[in-house]
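Let us work through a complete example step by step.
Step 1: write down the sequence.
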Amino acid sequence: MMRARRLAMFLLAAGACGGGSKVKSAPAPLRPEPRKMAPAPQVTRDDCEPISPSEGPAPLSYAERSVEEADNLANQGFALLQQAGARGADPAGGEEMVEQAVHRFITALLADPYNVHATYNLAAAYARIGRAQCSVNLLARLVPLRKLPSQSARVEEKLDRLLGRKGYKGRLDPDFFDLRDDPRFRDLVKNF
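Step 2: predict the structure and record it as tokens.
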């Protein structure tokens, strides 16, 4: 009797669960179709053509230059360049900051082509992003600027930083590390 009772309870329980019918499999998950991504455009940065420091537009008089504006723009560009090179800086954000710094330096040089701070730091920014010839061209501009009495001390200070002299003894400007073994850079340094 006990067996019969157990069998009855088993059959009753099995019937309550749907009996002998098979469990259906779950439907396939609904997922969006994978999007086909266009290949990322490859940005190629063209380097500059070599130029002679004597090439370029005619000299501007002091009255034609906007010296204070150029100084302010060069200082803003320098601050951006420093932020971009700070440790722990986001690489994408750093690249954008270098781009903004380059724009500020170029604008500063449009306002005052004799601005040594903008010239040197634009060369540093170009060296940092691998535009070696652009960097060398800008450093070459320091040669004639060095001969101007009003710019001589500023140029010497930048050259000291570039070459690790005087107050920068033993501390070469790190922006130019990748450029130092370039023959164009080596030839230019001979002029300093």
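Step 3: interpret the result. The two ends are 113 Å apart (CA to CA).
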